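Title: Request for sanity check on Actin prediction

Description:
We are preparing a figure and want to confirm that the structure record we downloaded matches what your pipeline produces today. Could someone re-run it with the sequence below and paste the raw structure tokens into this thread? We only need the token string, no images.
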Amino acid sequence: MDQVAVIDVGSGFTKIGINSEQLPLKTFESAVNGHAYGREALKKGGVHKYVMEKGYWINFDTMNKYLDHIYKDEFVVRPDDYGVIMTESPSSQKNYREKLVKLMFEQYDVPYFYLARQDVLTALSAGKLTAAVLESGYGVTLASVIYEGYAINNLTHKLEIGAADVDDALMKILIEERGVVFATDSERYQVRLIKEKFCNVASQQSAFDSTDVTTDTFELPDGRVITIGDVEKYKPSELLFYPREFGFNSDGVHESLAQCINRSDEELRPWLYKNIICGGGNTAFSGIDTRLQNEISELSSTITVHVEAPVSRKYSAWIGAAMLSSLSTFEKMAMRRSQYDEVGEQLVHRVCFN
Ligand SMILES: Nc1ncnc2c1ncn2[C@@H]1O[C@H](COP(=O)(O)OP(=O)(O)OP(=O)(O)O)[C@@H](O)[C@H]1O
Ligand SMILES: [Mg+2]
């Protein structure tokens, strides 16, 4: 069985590896700044940009340059030796999909190539072909219904909130509550570290006006020590459930999931409510499964709700892609070089459903 290169370029982080591995071999910021990439691009002065915005490539040139970087500098494999699977967002632009296929076959000479939706892959990562999925990354959040391995397009909700907004919420709290100001990009990076280390999801919405039950401290690189209390720990992730309270014109993830499920076939709904899968880095908070279950149960009190939050969910799309590309049927499922030569770029729309 051939090995497959698994590439998940996200709005915030790129995860790459080989399908025979359990986890990505490398994770780095999807950022570019002149000739610098990843963390280096953010550290270097001047203007950096993320190669994707809310799940979509910012332009052709950047896509081309970034994939070149991945192949030349990050992967230790020769692209023409490996089939490739890449993740994509729902409703990816047609011309970008075509361009990507052209690049893969003509520039990198890959033997076969497949594009798969992140939400479908997140369901697969939990071993499900039919499920309701909450996929939340750096830039966007999706609530989707996956049926027999395919996403039902009119049952996909895209929420314009993501981990970057949670970072902003935490930063605002630290300024307001503790008077700590984060001015530079590298200081913003510290906010992310604080979030990943200390933030959780509370089991229910609370007022955060009581005295802290537990406090921790965190030392910034410049020696400042900041106190992390309950408001820092629990409030930022409230943004997922009550974005309006943070100034976003968006439903909460629980409402969005319930709406998707309630618009699906009636016979399917009980299964979907019992098979809600969380994925993406912005669902890595502990307690998210319990809270989501509580909130959804409150919306539909007569139905049994079960939420699954797999341990490695921050890599769920990558893991799902590694699993899919390890199936014995994958090579047949993917676009092959010979098919591409015959059909051209349009092949992608026939083979990879989006
Ligand atoms: N333990 C953790 N707790 C909270 N957040 C976390 C944790 N670990 C990672 N994250 C967050 O996950 C985010 C990245 O998620 P992910 O890699 O799924 O996004 P992405 O794929 O780049 O974005 P998108 O899918 O929206 O295009 C980061 O902002 C990071 O801070
Ligand atoms: Mg992602």
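Thanks, this matches our download. The chain has three domains: 4-118+316-351, 123-161+250-314, 163-239.
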